[in-house]
C-alpha cells in the first residue's frame, strides 16, 4: 500500500466518523407505534398544541409549528462581555408515516440563537443545537397522547 492510499484511507475514515458524529447530534426522536395512522396523527397534533401550528398536512404526514421566541437572559457578547438582550427561537417539525404494520412518528426541534455575526449585520439568527428540555417535553407529551389513544410502542 502506498503512502497516498494510506493518507486517502485515513482521510476517508475521518470524514465518515465526522459525518456519523454530526448525524448523532441532530437530536431526531423516532417512535414506531402499533396503532392506526389516524390515532398517531391525532396524538402528534395534540403533543404540540402548546405552540401555534403553521403546517398541518395529514396526507403528507407533516406537522410544523411556527417559530416561538424564547428570552435567554444572562448571555454576554463581545470582548468586554457585555450583557445584551438575547433570545432563541424554536419550532418543532414532526413526520408521521404509514408503514406496513406500524406507524412511524419522528420529530426534531429546529433551534436558532440571536447571535453576533459581525459585518454589516451585527446580529442575526444562527443555528444551534436542539434543547434537551424541549425535546424531552415533546417526547413525554407524545408518549402520553399515544397511550391515551390506546397505542403501544413497537
Model description:
This protein has helices at residues 3-24, 37-47, 132-148; strands spanning 29-34, 53-57, 62-65, 68-71, 76-77, 82-83, 87-98, 103-116, 123-128, 152-153. It is of the alpha+beta class. β2 and β3 (62-65) form a beta hairpin. The model is unreliable at 4-25 (pLDDT under 50).
DSSP, total strands: 10
Describe the main β-sheet briefly.
8 strands, antiparallel
Q: Roughly what fraction of the amino acids lie in strands?
A: 35-45%
Taken from the alpha-carbon principal axes, the silhouette is elongated
How many alpha or pi helices?
3
Q: Name the structural class.
A: alpha+beta
Distance separating the two termini: 47 Å
Radius of gyration: 20 Å
Q: Which parts are unreliable, with pLDDT below 50 for 5 consecutive residues or more?
A: 4-25
Please trace the helix and strand order, writing H or E for each element: HEHEEEEEEEEHE
Oligomer: single chain
Please provide a brief summary of the model.
The protein has 154 residues and is α+β, with helices and mostly antiparallel strands. The chain has helices spanning 3-24, 37-47, 132-148; strands spanning 29-34, 53-57, 62-65, 68-71, 76-77, 82-83, 87-98, 103-116, 123-128, 152-153.
Strand and helix layout:
Layout: H1 3-24, E1 29-34, H2 37-47, E2 53-57, E3 62-65, E4 68-71, E5 76-77, E6 82-83, E7 87-98, E8 103-116, E9 123-128, H3 132-148, E10 152-153
Helix pairs in contact: 2-3
Please tag this protein with its features.
154 residues; alpha+beta; eight-stranded antiparallel sheet; 3 helices; two-stranded antiparallel sheet
Amino acid at each position: 500500500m502506498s503512502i497516498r492510499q494510506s493518507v486517502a484511507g485515513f482521510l476517508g475514515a475521518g470524514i465518515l466518523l465526522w459525518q456519523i458524529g454530526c448525524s448523532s447530534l441532530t437530536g431526531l426522536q423516532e417512535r414506531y407505534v402499533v396503532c392506526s395512522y389516524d390515532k398517531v396523527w391525532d396524538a402528534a397534533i395534540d403533543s404540540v398544541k402548546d405552540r401555534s401550528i403553521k403546517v398541518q398536512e395529514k396526507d403528507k404526514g407533516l406537522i410544523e409549528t411556527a417559530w416561538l421566541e424564547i428570552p435567554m437572559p444572562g448571555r454576554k457578547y463581545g470582548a468586554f462581555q457585555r450583557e445584551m438582550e438575547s433570545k432563541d427561537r424554536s419550532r418543532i417539525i414532526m413526520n408521521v408515516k404509514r408503514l406496513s404494520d406500524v406507524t412511524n412518528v419522528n420529530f426534531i426541534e429546529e433551534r436558532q440563537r440571536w447571535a453576533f455575526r459581525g459585518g454589516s449585520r451585527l446580529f442575526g439568527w444562527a443555528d444551534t443545537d436542539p434543547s434537551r428540555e424541549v425535546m424531552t417535553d415533546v417526547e413525554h407529551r407524545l408518549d402520553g397522547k399515544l397511550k391515551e389513544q390506546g397505542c403501544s410502542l413497537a
